[in-house]
Specification:
heterodimer; A: mainly alpha; about 0% strand; B: mainly alpha
Amino acid sequence: MTPELLLLGLALAAGLYTAWTIGANDVANAMGTSVGSGALTLTAAIILAGIFEFGGAVLVGSSVTGTISKGIVQIELFEPTGPLGADGPRILALAMVAALFGCAAWLHTATHFGLPVSTTHSIVGAVAGVGIVTFGWSGVQWLSLLGIVASWVISPLLGGLIAFTSFVIIRKTILRQDDPVAATKRLGPYMVAVVVLIMMLSFIYKALKNRLDSPPLLPALAASAFVAVTVGVVSGILIRRTQPRPGARPYDYVERVFAMLQVTTACFVAFAHGANDVANAVGPVAAVVSLYQAGYSAVMSHVTVPFWVLVMGGIGIVVGLATLGYKVIATIGHQITEMTPTRGFSAEFGAATTVLIASSLGMPVSTTHTLVGGVIGVGFAQGIAALNVRTVRNIVNSWLATLPAAATVAGLLFLLGRAIIF
Amino acid sequence: MRSLVGLFARSPFGSLAEHAARVHEAVELLRPLFEAFIEGNWDETQKVYERISKLEHKADVLKNEIRDHLPKSLFMPVDRGDLLRFLKEQDGIADRTEDVAVLLVMRRTVTPPDMRAAVLDFVDYLIQTSAAWLSAARELTVLQEASFTGPEVEKAIQRAKDISDMEWEADKRQAALSEKLFDHEAEIGPVGVVMWMNVLRELGGVANHAENTADVLRLMLARR
């Protein structure tokens, strides 16, 4: 086996491994809360998660991939005319492989010790580490790295703000009313329509952007509005058909209706998560694939992710979901019973919207941390009985720890691989 | 994944209602306690006292458990200080109940025959007051579901007002009973009178703590 083919094989294996980890661990965030609140059964949750994660990965995934492979490390340095000479492109491929394995190894270690780390942050740290050992401190684009780190602070805040606003609206328009049941029947369909409208618009502008050159605003709006109104009307019929159980409290009914909305937002989160997190696994793989196809003779400044690589990432996530993810979903669902549908809907809506905005800007943010931001937002709107604010400290710690740790592991792996292959 | 699970702390509202249930169980035992005492059945009085004492201890254990799960880093829809005051006042109901029982087993005091019905009436009224407060405490989980807003809050505030009225009524009954005591000074002796004064005062304390708990509940709901 030639080193070229070996590098490609290793990249594919590492990419699949990372995608598997994502499916095994992170997907639970989208669906666990719906299972916990009883809005979805475990089987239904896994099937929906599989469909929407795969859809998000394949349809939207590629818009994020660019930033990871080229934003952090200055890719021109790997040109055959650059400081590394003719080996440059091969070293870049090795760097990507080392980054993927470093990321996955750190993820595995951290999960073992129960640290809340993010896949996204690990891959960013790993790429930076490889950049440093190859070119020294000047090998990393510190400004764009700073921008990425800033987005990690901003994304939970934005997710929290949207979740807070959503729950305050639910509180004012439904929970505070004298007759919450009537208020739900009256306003529920409109809320469904708004959520569907936002989902449709983000779908058109992010998912179809790869197939369609900048979709015109008016037809896009009209199509989205049409779908939103249709779904709103259908849900209105469904909501009116749902009757309060005799003797049950009004909030019981409100939560049952919102269970439908929570399922919608859970799918939205799964879609956004697939779009956002598949890039972690697929971005570096795509870089190696394009290098291999060019015969390691040149470095592409623009890597278009081949469709089959996205599909591979999607499959990896689904396999992770099917082999281990369902256990994690069941555990999370069992432990988080506080996320009743009204709360879960608000938190998930905030998180998914934020993640989709971030991934369309090419910002690699953490879905988990954004969802944590969403939950805290609902807490600030007095929706949750008791929140451990100390978790926020854990998250900040994981930001501080993950970058250097993943960078070190990936850097060492890179040096090892370089010694063996070259 | 772990950060999401770690975010949710145990809800204190269910435990508060459970604590309330333990406390009310103790209050309900006041009826058999006084029945035995009035009849001069000292063995039975001792037995009921022991049951009350056990329940009071159970409530204490639960109280400390709830406190242990309320670290300062917790973010809740109600003020943490209010919640702790609520718990303290609620626990005070069980403490007063136990104090009454302690007084009754301390000395074999005779009950003047024509006061017996009035004393039992007073005890029943206190149990009613405690039951009213228990139903308010049980509403805490519903209030949380409603995120402390809307018609549920109005209902809870009304309940708290009712408990206030009941405490006022209990005060009047306590005063009337105390006054009556002095008519029996010759019959039960000065020590008997002092004993009964103390018993009645501790009994009144049960209603006072129920009222204080209801007041804290009102305060919690008013701060929004």
